[in-house]
Amino acid sequence: MKRNNKIISLALAGIFGVATCGLAHAQISGDVVKIGFLTDMSGVYSDIDGQGGAEAIKMAIADFGGTVNGKKIELVTADHQNKADNAASHAREWFDQQGVDVLIGGTNSGANLSMAKVAVEKKRPFISIGAGSARLTNEECSPYTVHYAYDTTALAKVTGSTVVKQGGKSWFFLTADYAFGASLESDTTRVVKADGGTVLGDVKHPLGASDFSSFLLQAQASKAQILGLANAGGDTINSIKAANEFGITKTMKLAGLLMFINDVHALTLNLTHGMYLTDSWYWDKNDETRKWGRRYFEKMKKMPSSLQAADYSAVTQYLNAVKATGTDNPEKIMDYLKKAKLNDMYVKNGYVRADGSMVHDMYLMQVKQQADSKYPWDYYTVVQTVPGEQAFTTKEETKCALWK
Amino acid sequence: MEIFGVSSQALLSQLMLGLVNGSFYAMLSLGLAVIFGLLNVINFAHGALYMLGAFCAWLGLTYFGLNYWEMLVLAPLIVALFGIVIERTMLRWLYKLDHLYGLLLTFGITLMIEGVFRSIYGVSGQPYSVPDALAGATDLGFMILPNYRAWVVLASLTACFTTWFVIEKTKLGAYLRAGTENPKLVEAFGINVPLMVTLTYGFGVGLAGLAGVLAAPVIQVSPLMGSNLIIVVFAVVVIGGMGSIMGSIVTGLGLGVIEGLTRVFYPQASATVVFIVMAIVLLIRPAGLFGKEK
Amino acid sequence: MNKKICYGIFLLALLVAPFVMYPVLLMKLLCFALFACAFNLLLGFTGLLSFGHAAFFGGAAYVTGYAIQTLGLPFEVSIMLGTATAALVGLLMGLLAVRRQGIYFTMITLALAQMFYFVCVQVPQTGGEDGLQGVARGKLLGLLDLSNDFTMYYVVLAIAIGGFALIVRTIHSPFGQVLKAIKENEPRAISLGYDVDKYKLLAFVLSAALAGLAGSTKTTALGLASLTDVEWTMSGLVVLMTLVGGLGTVIGPIVGAVLVIGLENRLSDIGEWLANVTTIEWFRTLGDSASIVIGFIFVVCVLLFRRGIVGEALAFFAKSANRKPA
Q1: Scanning A70, A198, B97, C313, which has the fewest C-beta atoms within 10 Å of its C-beta?
Q2: Is C113 within 8 Å of C51 (Cβ atoms)?
Q3: Could A206 and C121 be called an inter-chain contact, meaning their C-beta atoms sit closer than 8 Å?
Q4: Residues of chain B contacting C236 with CB distance shorter than 8 Å
């Protein structure tokens, strides 16, 4: 019996050892410029960024020639499934074990906020593309975070004030119950009140909710004029569909506070015409954007959203910075980015501010009527160009300690 | 008109929605109760099979051009068949063991089914449109009710009461109930109990598949639609009394309505109210409202 | 005698491990191993299947995170607070659940845990969908700085070993014998005069507290607490770990935890390797399908390997021992 106990224990120790050895890795050498891209690849935000964003980044790497300063450029991607803890653990492991040099954050503000915290801890650059929450450049601002494409402040100031000025004085919010929704609702509330409007209430829905009917009925009971949709992606699509189904649109007007071209495409112009939205880029704006948009269309069979274009641009600008400084040292890169003028098909005369915002023009656009749309994906008219200094947080409003 | 500080419009509209949700709870908990009553197995896979029914409808429409009405008949049959295969190949080996193994097996099956669909379709839903005959809405005065939702309530009530009638009032149902009490004795009478068990499992999951097809136009056809629902359905079954047919129907509808009411007066609690009711019922009547102490 | 030598070898391996493997992953493994062992105390040794252990694990995780971040309490106090909370939740749940047997007990724990989940979603202190992030580790007893991964690892190791030792002690104590008796034949235990409900409740609370300890430690090790920790899928995961490792064995849950977490972590790599070896491209997507693989293992274990890896190994060696001449 004693001998067998020994055999058993040794055998088990053996199994244990083999199993755990499989988990050991070797450190990757630093001879490569590694880009890490973490986004939602399978959930409600997978269309507006997701796999398309990864393709856009690959285009950027290919356009750059595949190498910078003689080092090969590599890309690792992962799906955080809209879970902040997934994002944080991937980010941590990438920085610790895989030698990732820069982290690109896709969608989901909660995930981006947690990625930003890890990047600050590890002192590496973090470029947030898909997140909306303005907290990234206010309460959570850091010398390593760049908030690249848009934020909830810009959306609120541009769409929010336009709708109020058009007569939409009383609001009710349908809010996605996490960092982004909360940010968007509070920023828009501030703008609405400042412009003389009132907010009659709000109802929060879980991210990725399947049935909006009860939330919408609560909204309708408030008798507000405007239903502010403080959500995005699949949630916005479902809210608008359900609002039409339950006749909510007969008594309330819908304000889609964050909408992308993929949402309009899914809903069709019939359900969305006349809606105002704020975005940082449109594929049909000028020849340069059209050229890139068509290249993207060849690969993905749909037109790119502003986030996918921003992924391309951010990586291009990062690689430019690496080339110009001759190194991938984080502090030197961040320094360079904050001094350079950024120009490419996505942004003209953009610059990174002390609080981390990449300041650039935002566009107020309106969805066309079906009759005015001449070709596939011809969805928007550009109503107004708002300079970045007006759209984003101003120095008086900022809560960032780095920009005082 | 105001009742307790809330407009009657809001109250009635949420009650209506609650009835629709309750219909789903009733159908799903009925299937679970039937399976538990006869097989003594908690079919954790019920949610996944409900999702399977919805996906069958969607796949049928997308790839084979089969419309809603055809899938309404076909999908439950496909799901029932799938269930029969599961029962024959896997579940039946576990009857001699502790009932918990049945639960664990069906849990594993759930993970697999949901995992397969999730890896193919992601987690956001596939849209499924309402069939033309049921499209449009009726203005009920206090709300605009999409016709389809009224149909859901009708269809599920019909399915539930038909099942109840068959089990409680017909000879086939009598055999089923006898088989639950004393399988050996019933077998001695020449009735093929194993076959009956298999068919019962198939029927129970077929009900889940039917619920799935009914649900497809209402909520998104998504791989997670079952797991969002299944735990609430378990709570319903516990409240109603596990194994009681009438219990699950009444409790299912009742809880849907209670949930709707909670949404009007105290929306934050609407997700937990079912479990609070369960805790209260367990303290007063541990066997459930309609259950018998086993 | 030999058992001690083997435990010694194990310990040595664990002490050296952070130099070969990623310490944060090791810490995660230790926390989950403790969680699985705590769960096994209830399932393997008392015969009660709880499908709601995520409430204890996640609840303690949140409390500890909140204590460190918002209340500014030191490391040890936060962990103790988390563990105590888990014990309290365990007591409340247990009082309701223990009255019923078998399947009913399981259903009740599942439903109560789900209620706890929804409460966690609503309560603002948990950060809702975002969870608690960037939880600092602080200092141990105000002296030892824990931000270094290596230092933290040894602290986590000490906690895990402490919890494990407590479980082993409990199993071999008179109390543990009564639990085993209840598992084997409850009516007989009642007829012998034992207040079965009290024993079950005590086992439940103990299991909950240790699961809470695992959760609290996890928060400090990984720096986050989120809704994933209180979801019912987490409860299912710990059942799987225990089942795969071996119910009713002492080290089974540890093996199970290592296997399951290791699998989750390395699935994409395994998928790549399988794809290259068998040239079936679908394997490359295996990384996204952790639940399919886990579900498959679950089904196989329930049908064929009910005793789990360790259980089957022990049975195999016992059989071959019987065949040898005495």
Answers
A1: A70
A2: yes
A3: yes
A4: 107, 111
CA B116 to chain CA mean position, Å: 22
The residue ranges of DSSP E strands in chain B, in sequence order, are: 2-3, 6-7, 137-139, 144-146
Which residues of A fall within a CB distance of 8 Å from C128?
A: 177-178
C195 conformational bin, left if phi > 0, alpha if psi -120 to 50, beta if neither: beta
- Answer for the pair A186, A230: CB distance below 8 angstroms, yes or no: no
Q: What is the pLDDT of residue A175?
A: 94
Instruction: Please state, as a whole number, how many other Cβ atoms lie within 10 Å of the Cβ of residue B286.
Output: 15
Judged by a CB distance cut-off of 8 A, whether residue A370 touches chain B is no
The full set of domain ranges for chain C reads 20-323
DSSP state of B273: H
Higher pLDDT pick, B119 / A125? A125
The owner of tokens 């969305």 is A272
pLDDT value of position C313: 84
Quote the CA–CA distance of C223 and A71 in Å, as a whole number: 34
Q: With an 8 Å Cβ cutoff, are C291 and B105 in contact?
A: no
In this complex, do A221 and B7 lie within 8 Å of one another by their Cβ atoms?
yes
Does the beta carbon of B120 lie under 8 angstroms from any beta carbon of chain C? no
pLDDT tens by residue, A355-370: 999 999 999 999 999 9
**pLDDT tier at A25, thresholds 50, 70, 90:** very low
Higher pLDDT, C77 or A5: C77
Residue for token digits 């009394």? B241
Where do we find the tokens 């509330």? A189
Instruction: Write down the ipTM of this complex.
Output: 0.85
Q: Which of A101, A332, A385 is closest to A340 using CA atoms? A: A332
Q: Which of residues 71-100 of C touch A (CB under 8 A)?
A: none
Minimum mean pLDDT range among A389-403, B57-71, C1-15, C32-46? C1-15
Distance of alpha carbon A99 from alpha carbon A96, whole angstroms: 6
User: Is B17 within 8 Å of chain A by CB?
Assistant: yes
Which residue in the set A208, A217, A234 is minimally distant from B143, CB to CB?
A217
* CA distance linking residue B163 with residue B156, whole number of Å: 10
Instruction: Report the C-alpha gap between C25 and A20 in whole angstroms.
Output: 11
Q: Which of C2, C130, C249 to mutate to test the interface with A (most CBs of A within 10 A)?
A: C130
Whole-angstrom distance, CA of residue A364 vs CA of residue A270 = 20
For residue A1, what pLDDT band results from cuts at 50, 70 and 90? Answer: very low
Average the pLDDT over each of A104-108, A350-354, B240-244 and give the range with the smallest value: B240-244
Contacts of A235 in chain B (CB under 8 A): none
Chain A contact probe: residue of B21, B152, B220 with most A CBs at under 10 A: B220
A201 sits in which H/E element: strand A198-205
Among positive and negative, which fits the CA dihedral B251, B257, B259, B265? Answer: negative
Range C20-323 has CATH code 1.10.3470 = yes
Does the CA dihedral A164-A168-A170-A174 come out positive or negative? negative
pLDDT tens digits, one per residue of A225-275: 999 999 998 899 989 988 988 888 888 999 999 999 999 998 889 889 889
